[in-house]
Specification:
The protein is of the alpha+beta class. The chain is about 40% helix and about 15% strand. The protein contains 3 helices and 2 strands, in the order H-H-H-E-E. The chain has a two-stranded antiparallel ribbon. Helix 1 packs across helix 3 and helix 2 crosses helix 3.
């Protein structure tokens, strides 16, 4: 049986390929380009779940908005 990539796993890989911090809006855009139906609240929950697992680090900007950065970047597992 082939391994199936979950929506959150796909989002994590996509975030690791992005050049800067990811906002909820950007996560929603990334997911909208896939076959998964995604709304802003789903993207927000996915980002929070990935942060709770230690895969993303929440960063609060000067404007009060929360963005996320990966705790591990790249395919070699180095940050």
């Amino acid at each position: 049986m082939p391994d199936q990539l979950t929506r959150r796993a796909w989002l994590l890989v996509a975030i690791q390929g992005e050049p800067g911090p990811i906002s909820t809006g950007r996560a929603e855009q990334l997911l909208a380009a896939t076959g998964w139906s995604c709304h802003r609240n789903t993207a927000r929950k996915d980002l929070r779940a990935l942060a709770a697992r230690g895969l993303l680090r929440p960063v609060k900007g000067a404007d009060g908005r929360r963005t996320y950065t990966p705790t591990i970047t790249g395919e070699d597992g180095r940050s």
